[in-house]
């Protein structure tokens, strides 16, 4: 079952470095340094989260997407924006903790607004109930964006708007994933939002180590969540 382990060693090392438990400033520095090679590396990883998340959000979306305002949190180089753009979303704002990543995102021309923001340390640079949807794709993981940011994501989401989140289901992220799901469950029970989708995906991306891979496939699995903020607008009678 080691057939999937043909990732170039350099790619493996770069990916492993950002997932290792380094402190936040060091991690952001790694992302700055990774920005130039990031898209090649994730292509080698066959990283499917941006595609899957954008497809799920587009499916949940009730209205034509062109007029919707979206916030892409931890937007990186703009992989999610590219997928959303292909599905008709045109008003995209992005935030990221890495200036190097934001520079790349800016060069795509896909965002109306890009701002530096270290989530978990500072609030989102947006007013309450501002966005029709907020996405966090790929950054919800051990040592990255803490699950305590969920209320802040909901704060900037309009009532009836959507949260689109992804996380990995590989062994080293299972504790984080359980925390994330517990936090989401708590928000749901409090009436803050409701779950529309929790889609487990087997082939999420290439594993960087044999231990992380699902049953020796050479891949790790992941999950896409879509939540809707309450109160959900009622359809007009008549």
Automatic annotation (TrEMBL):
GO MF annotation terms: S-adenosylmethionine-dependent methyltransferase activity
Methyltransferase type domain residues: 71-164
Pfam family, one: Methyltransf_11
Gene3D superfamilies, A to Z: Vaccinia Virus protein VP39
InterPro entries xrefs: Methyltransf_11 (IPR013216), SAM-dependent_MTases_sf (IPR029063)
CDD domains according to UniProt: AdoMet_MTases
Designated name of the protein: MET27 protein
């Amino acid at each position: 079952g080691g057939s999937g382990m043909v990732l170039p060693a350099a790619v493996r090392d770069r990916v492993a470095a950002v997932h290792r438990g380094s402190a936040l400033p060091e991690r952001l520095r790694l992302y700055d340094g990774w920005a130039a090679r990031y898209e090649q590396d994730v292509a080698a990883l066959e990283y499917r989260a941006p595609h899957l998340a954008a497809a799920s959000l587009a499916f949940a979306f009730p209205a034509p997407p062109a007029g919707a305002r979206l916030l892409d949190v931890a937007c990186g180089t703009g992989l999610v924006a590219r997928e959303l753009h292909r599905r008709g979303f045109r008003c995209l704002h992005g935030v990221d903790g890495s200036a190097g990543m934001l520079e790349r995102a800016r060069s795509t021309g896909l965002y109306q607004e890009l701002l530096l923001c270290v989530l978990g340390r500072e609030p989102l640079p947006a007013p309450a109930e501002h966005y029709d949807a907020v996405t966090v794709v790929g950054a919800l993981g051990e040592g990255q964006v803490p699950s305590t940011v969920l209320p802040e994501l909901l704060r900037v989401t309009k009532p009836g708007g959507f949260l689109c989140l992804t996380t990995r289901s590989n062994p080293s992220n299972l504790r984080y994933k359980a925390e994330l799901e517990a936090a989401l469950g708590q928000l749901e029970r409090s009436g803050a939002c409701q779950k529309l989708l929790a889609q487990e995906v087997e082939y999420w991306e290439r594993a960087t180590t044999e231990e992380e891979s699902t049953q020796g496939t050479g891949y790790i699995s992941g999950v896409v969540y879509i939540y809707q903020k309450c109160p959900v607008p009622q359809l007009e009678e008549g």
